[in-house]
Write a structure and sequence with these properties.
The structure is a single chain. About 35% of the residues lie in helices and about 15% in strands. It is an alpha/beta fold. Strands 1-2-4-3-5-6-7-8 form an 8-stranded mixed sheet, sandwiched between helices. Helix 3 (about 95-105) packs across helix 9 and helix 4 crosses helix 5. The chain is globular, with a radius of gyration of 18 Å.
């Protein structure tokens, strides 16, 4: 049975969804979305950063290092925020990044990758590759090569984490020690059966919203099934170990299942954790939500031997 706190989180997402769609003027709708999304994790006043953040330029890309007292400067996570490739900010993710840093003992680099519709596919992929290559050689304490590297992200950022790693693999470049997608949007086209199965269980994400953000992100219809944009179509031969965490209430649950199945068929070391009764990117409600704390600790355990 889920925690009492989860009921508060569910109601928060439900209310925020109503706020999102309270503006019907399409000409300013995206501005409203971008303003509102920073409230996504604000279900309780205890949800705040437990670390420090420092601005940095990662080879032309604005970013923030997020660290806590136990962060190893040579053990680094590149974190990619969610938001349908069109919204989301570093500021809105400083709390989640800090609790991820605390749970894993890593230093976390959150980047400001290009957003649609100003920057369409594959700008976010290229920005992620650029930032990852920079992160391998640069840490929070200066120009030092890292001992271990990881790529994580949520929602669109989760799909981006997988897609960018596929791109790095195709480039024959150094790969992260592991990839940790959280509630990933990994298939741009909303064709999964879970858009119907979980339609009334997911308080925040809908099939219509996914379709709208898809149209903002791609330039050509052929991009929809490009493996970097929709990693469910990717080749996972030689892919790093991967941990996927997703909530059972999510309409995006099918994306996680498809990725896990595809990766397993290729011999990838894949772990899929479906968290009962949890909503989209529940991790960001740490330390308020007990399940979020448990999930972050599970990530720490997963990467400890990678």
């Amino acid at each position: 049975m889920s925690s009492e706190e989860s009921k508060i989180v569910f109601k928060h997402q439900e209310d925020l969804g109503k706020t999102f769609f309270s503006i019907t003027d399409e000409s300013i709708g995206l501005k409203h979305f971008r303003y509102t999304v920073d409230d996504y994790f604000s279900a309780d006043k205890s949800i705040k950063s437990c670390g420090i953040s420092s601005p940095v330029v990662a080879n032309g890309i604005y970013a923030q290092w997020v660290t806590t007292e136990n962060s190893d400067p040579n053990k680094r996570i590149l974190y990619l925020h969610g938001g349908g490739y069109a919204i989301g900010t570093i500021r809105g993710y400083l709390s989640l990044a800090s609790h991820l840093a605390k749970a894993t003992g890593c230093s976390v680099l959150v980047i400001d990758y290009g957003l649609a519709p100003e920057d369409k596919f594959p700008v976010a992929i290229n920005d992620t590759k650029t930032a990852f290559k920079w992160m391998l050689e640069n840490g929070p304490n200066g120009n030092t090569r890292c001992d271990k590297s990881f790529i994580s992200g949520d929602s669109a950022g989760g799909g981006l984490a997988i897609g960018a790693t596929l791109a790095l693999k195709d480039d024959n470049f150094d790969l992260p020690n592991a990839v940790i997608p959280l509630s990933p949007w990994a298939e741009l086209d909303p064709v999964s059966e879970f858009y119907e199965i979980n339609e009334k269980l997911d308080p925040y994400i809908s099939k219509d919203a996914i379709s709208a953000f898809k149209d903002l992100y791609i330039k050509n219809e052929s991009d929809i099934k490009h493996p970097y944009a929709s990693p469910v179509h990717g080749d996972f031969d030689g892919f790093p170990p991967m941990l996927i965490q997703v909530g059972s209430r999510e309409v995006l649950l099918g994306d996680s299942k498809k990725i896990a199945e595809k990766a397993k068929e290729s011999g990838c070391n894949i772990s899929l954790e479906i968290w009962d009764d949890m909503v989209h990117v529940f991790h960001g409600y740490a330390p308020f939500l007990p399940e979020a704390n448990e999930a972050l600790e599970a990530i720490g355990s997963f990467i400890s031997d990678k």
